[in-house]
Amino acid sequence: MKTIYHKADTRGHADHGWLNSYHTFSFANYQNAERTHFGALRVLNDDTVSQGMGFGTHPHRDMEIISIPLEGDLEHKDSMGTTAVIKKGEIQVMSAGTGVMHSEYNQNKDVPVKFLQIWVFPRELGVEPRYDQKSIKEGEKLNEFQQILSPEKNDEGVWIHQDAWFNLGKFTKGIDKNYKLHRKENGVYVFVLKGSIKIGDKTLNERDGLGIWETQSFTMEAVDDTEILVMEVPMELPSYLK
C-alpha cells in the first residue's frame, strides 16, 4: 500500500474577501508541481462564500464538477436552463462535457455558505452536458459508509462519466471500519471533515487528506467522533491527457 499525506495547513490558500478558499491541489494562483492531482481527482477546494456573494457566470468543459454544501445554501444557474438551490444534505453534479456556462452564489444574505468543490477528469471528452442534484441525507447512517456518487445511473447518489465512487461516513470514537476498493486500478483520497481518524501509522485531523493506492482495502479507526469523505478514483489518467 502506498500513501501520500497532505496536512490541512499545507494546502494552497486564497482570501478574496468575499471568498475564502483552500486548495488541496493546484488551482488558480496556487500552483504546486507536486500536487496537481491524485489520479483522476483534479480539484478539491474547500470554499467559504460570504453573504449574498458568489461566482459570476463562467465557462467549463470536459470536467465532472461536484459540489457538496457543508453549511448554508448555494444557488446554481447554468446555460442548460437549470436554476437550483443546493443545501447541506444534498450533492450536485455537473458534467461540463462539450461546454457549459454557470454561476454559483450564496443565496443567503445573513450567513456564509461553505461547500466542497470537486473536479474529476471524465473518462472521455465531448460528452453531452448534464446537471443532477440529489438528497444524500436520507441514506445517512452512523458508523457506515454512505455512497453518494458512482459511475452507474441507477446506483445510490449521483453519477459521473468516470469509474469513481464517493462515500461519506460518520463514525463514533473507537470504531474501526474497513473500506474495500471497487477496482484494483483505483486509489482512494480520504478527506477529514470533522474529528480525526487513524489509517496505518498516520493520524488525520480536520481537513487533512490521505491518498492511498496499490491496495484492495484498508482499515480506518475513528480517534474521535469523525466525519469523512472518501473519494475513490482511477489512478491512471485518461488517454487524452497522456
From TrEMBL:
Which top-level group of life is the source organism from? Bacteria
Per its record, what are the GO molecular function terms?
metal ion binding; quercetin 2,3-dioxygenase activity
One Pfam family from the record: Pirin
Q: Which InterPro entries match?
A: Pirin, Pirin_N_dom, Quercetinase_C, RmlC-like_jellyroll, RmlC_Cupin_sf
This enzyme's EC code(s): 1.13.11.24
Q: How would you classify this enzyme at the top EC level? A: oxidoreductase
The Quercetin 2,3-dioxygenase C-terminal cupin domain sits at: 148-233
Could you tell me which Gene3D superfamilies the record lists for this protein? Answer: Jelly Rolls
* Similarity remark: Belongs to the pirin family.
Q: What is the recorded name of this protein?
A: Quercetin 2,3-dioxygenase
